[in-house]
Specification:
Layout: E1 2-7, E2 10-13, E3 18-26, E4 33-39, E5 45-52, E6 58-59, E7 67-72, E8 77-82, E9 91-98, E10 107-108, E11 112-117
Parallel strand pairs: 2-11
Antiparallel strand pairs: 1-3, 3-8, 4-5, 4-9, 5-6, 7-8, 9-10, 9-11
Length: 118
């Protein structure tokens, strides 16, 4: 089992920045794939960014150039640095972990809300 706890969300004005953190505990040694998703009210949960252990990050087109995903394997933590935030970035942001991108049980955090005011 892996437990994920997100933090760092909040209210920010358009153009501002936030850094989200996802701290993992449990059998994290088996986790190679981690990702950030977001879900706006009334919409489906969509991928924001993903990263594998030692791999190249991948970003949704909507956040390319504004967001950076990174991981600190020593701290079992993945981060999402978000800059130049827009009102359409408003959503609950969730952290996801999996042994491989398409294999193994999926683990999700409880989410951290981000609200961007115009």
């Amino acid at each position: 089992q892996v437990q994920l706890v997100e933090s760092g969300g909040g209210l920010v004005q358009a153009g501002g920045s936030l850094r989200l953190s996802c701290a993992a505990s449990g059998n994290f040694f088996s986790i190679n794939y981690m990702a950030w998703y977001r879900q706006a009210p009334g919409k489906q949960r969509d991928l924001v960014a993903e990263i594998t252990r030692g791999g190249t990050p991948n970003y949704a087109d909507s956040v390319k150039g504004r967001c950076t995903i990174s991981r600190d394997n020593a701290k079992n933590t993945v981060y999402l640095q978000m800059n130049s935030l827009k009102p359409e970035d408003t959503a609950v942001y969730y952290c996801k972990a999996r042994q491989l991108i398409n294999w193994g049980p999926e683990y999700w955090g409880q989410g951290t809300p981000v609200t961007v005011s115009s």
